[in-house]
Amino acid sequence: MKPCKHPCCPDKGPCKKVKARKKPKPIRKESRKQARRNRQYSAQKRKEFQDDNVCAVALLENKSDEVIKLFAGCQYHATQKHHDAGRIGSHLFDTGIKVCGPCHRVIEEHPKLSKSLGLSSSRLVNH
User: Fold this and answer.
1) DSSP codes, 78-118
2) b/e per residue, 115-127, with b = 16+ CB within 10 A?
3) 3-state DSSP call for residue 27?
4) Is 67 helix (H, G, I), strand (E, B) or coil?
5) For a Cys-Cys bond, which of 4, 34, 47, 50 suits 15, CB 3.0-4.6 Å?
6) Model-wide pTM > 0.85
7) Contact of 75 with 102, CB cutoff 8 Å
8) Longest dimension (CA), the chain
Protein backbone atom coordinates (compact mmCIF):
# COMPACT_ATOMS: atom_id res chain seq x y z
CA MET A 1 0.00 0.00 0.00
CA LYS A 2 1.28 3.43 -0.87
CA PRO A 3 1.07 6.11 1.77
CA CYS A 4 -1.75 8.59 1.36
CA LYS A 5 -0.87 12.03 0.00
CA HIS A 6 -3.68 13.92 1.71
CA PRO A 7 -2.41 16.34 4.37
CA CYS A 8 -4.88 15.14 7.00
CA CYS A 9 -3.92 11.46 6.76
CA PRO A 10 -1.07 9.70 8.56
CA ASP A 11 1.88 8.47 6.55
CA LYS A 12 0.83 4.87 6.93
CA GLY A 13 -2.54 3.19 6.78
CA PRO A 14 -5.77 3.83 4.88
CA CYS A 15 -6.87 7.25 3.78
CA LYS A 16 -9.02 9.06 6.35
CA LYS A 17 -10.50 11.43 3.82
CA VAL A 18 -13.85 9.82 3.15
CA LYS A 19 -15.44 10.43 -0.20
CA ALA A 20 -19.06 11.48 0.02
CA ARG A 21 -21.27 9.10 -1.88
CA LYS A 22 -23.96 10.48 -4.11
CA LYS A 23 -27.46 9.48 -3.24
CA PRO A 24 -28.91 7.23 -5.93
CA LYS A 25 -31.60 8.74 -8.10
CA PRO A 26 -35.03 7.35 -7.32
CA ILE A 27 -36.64 5.28 -10.03
CA ARG A 28 -39.35 7.16 -11.92
CA LYS A 29 -42.89 5.93 -11.41
CA GLU A 30 -43.51 6.45 -15.11
CA SER A 31 -41.25 7.36 -17.99
CA ARG A 32 -41.27 10.86 -19.47
CA LYS A 33 -42.93 9.50 -22.58
CA GLN A 34 -45.69 7.79 -20.59
CA ALA A 35 -46.19 10.91 -18.46
CA ARG A 36 -46.74 12.93 -21.65
CA ARG A 37 -49.18 10.32 -22.97
CA ASN A 38 -51.10 10.36 -19.66
CA ARG A 39 -51.40 14.15 -19.80
CA GLN A 40 -52.78 13.92 -23.35
CA TYR A 41 -55.19 11.21 -22.25
CA SER A 42 -56.43 13.28 -19.31
CA ALA A 43 -57.13 16.24 -21.58
CA GLN A 44 -58.97 13.99 -24.05
CA LYS A 45 -61.02 12.42 -21.24
CA ARG A 46 -62.01 15.84 -19.84
CA LYS A 47 -63.32 16.87 -23.26
CA GLU A 48 -65.30 13.64 -23.64
CA PHE A 49 -66.93 13.98 -20.22
CA GLN A 50 -68.14 17.53 -20.88
CA ASP A 51 -70.93 16.19 -23.07
CA ASP A 52 -73.51 13.50 -22.40
CA ASN A 53 -72.52 11.41 -19.35
CA VAL A 54 -75.01 8.55 -19.27
CA CYS A 55 -73.69 5.19 -18.08
CA ALA A 56 -73.38 2.71 -20.98
CA VAL A 57 -74.80 -0.10 -18.85
CA ALA A 58 -77.99 1.88 -18.27
CA LEU A 59 -78.39 2.10 -22.05
CA LEU A 60 -78.12 -1.68 -22.57
CA GLU A 61 -81.24 -3.30 -23.98
CA ASN A 62 -82.53 -6.84 -23.42
CA LYS A 63 -80.90 -7.33 -20.01
CA SER A 64 -81.36 -10.71 -18.37
CA ASP A 65 -82.32 -11.09 -14.72
CA GLU A 66 -78.70 -11.93 -13.83
CA VAL A 67 -77.44 -8.75 -15.49
CA ILE A 68 -80.10 -6.63 -13.78
CA LYS A 69 -79.08 -8.04 -10.37
CA LEU A 70 -75.36 -7.47 -10.97
CA PHE A 71 -75.80 -3.92 -12.21
CA ALA A 72 -78.46 -2.97 -9.63
CA GLY A 73 -76.17 -0.29 -8.15
CA CYS A 74 -75.96 1.68 -11.41
CA GLN A 75 -75.89 5.42 -10.77
CA TYR A 76 -76.78 6.32 -14.40
CA HIS A 77 -74.20 9.15 -14.35
CA ALA A 78 -70.90 8.15 -15.97
CA THR A 79 -67.78 9.26 -14.11
CA GLN A 80 -65.23 6.76 -15.45
CA LYS A 81 -64.06 5.43 -18.78
CA HIS A 82 -63.79 1.67 -19.34
CA HIS A 83 -61.23 0.64 -21.95
CA ASP A 84 -62.63 -2.52 -23.49
CA ALA A 85 -59.16 -3.83 -24.40
CA GLY A 86 -57.18 -2.24 -21.57
CA ARG A 87 -54.99 0.87 -21.52
CA ILE A 88 -51.77 -0.74 -22.69
CA GLY A 89 -49.89 0.81 -25.61
CA SER A 90 -52.06 2.14 -28.40
CA HIS A 91 -55.25 1.10 -26.56
CA LEU A 92 -54.90 4.13 -24.25
CA PHE A 93 -56.41 6.50 -26.80
CA ASP A 94 -59.02 4.07 -28.13
CA THR A 95 -62.58 5.07 -27.58
CA GLY A 96 -63.83 3.43 -24.41
CA ILE A 97 -67.26 3.39 -22.90
CA LYS A 98 -68.47 5.79 -20.23
CA VAL A 99 -69.64 4.03 -17.09
CA CYS A 100 -70.41 4.84 -13.47
CA GLY A 101 -68.15 3.53 -10.68
CA PRO A 102 -70.29 0.58 -9.49
CA CYS A 103 -70.83 -0.65 -13.06
CA HIS A 104 -67.12 -0.32 -13.85
CA ARG A 105 -66.31 -2.50 -10.82
CA VAL A 106 -68.80 -5.18 -11.96
CA ILE A 107 -67.40 -5.11 -15.51
CA GLU A 108 -63.87 -5.65 -14.19
CA GLU A 109 -64.93 -8.41 -11.76
CA HIS A 110 -66.98 -10.38 -14.33
CA PRO A 111 -64.94 -10.47 -17.55
CA LYS A 112 -66.86 -13.31 -19.25
CA LEU A 113 -70.21 -11.59 -18.71
CA SER A 114 -68.89 -8.21 -19.85
CA LYS A 115 -67.44 -9.76 -23.02
CA SER A 116 -70.76 -11.46 -23.77
CA LEU A 117 -72.55 -8.10 -23.33
CA GLY A 118 -70.04 -6.37 -25.61
CA LEU A 119 -68.61 -4.20 -22.85
CA SER A 120 -65.10 -5.73 -23.00
CA SER A 121 -62.91 -7.41 -25.56
CA SER A 122 -59.62 -9.27 -25.51
CA ARG A 123 -56.48 -7.26 -26.16
CA LEU A 124 -54.75 -10.39 -27.40
CA VAL A 125 -56.85 -10.65 -30.56
CA ASN A 126 -55.97 -8.47 -33.54
CA HIS A 127 -58.76 -6.02 -34.20
Assistant:
1) --EEE-TT-SSGGGGGS--EEE-HHHHHHHHH-HHHHHHTT
2) eebebbeebeeee
3) coil
4) helix
5) 4
6) no
7) yes
8) 91
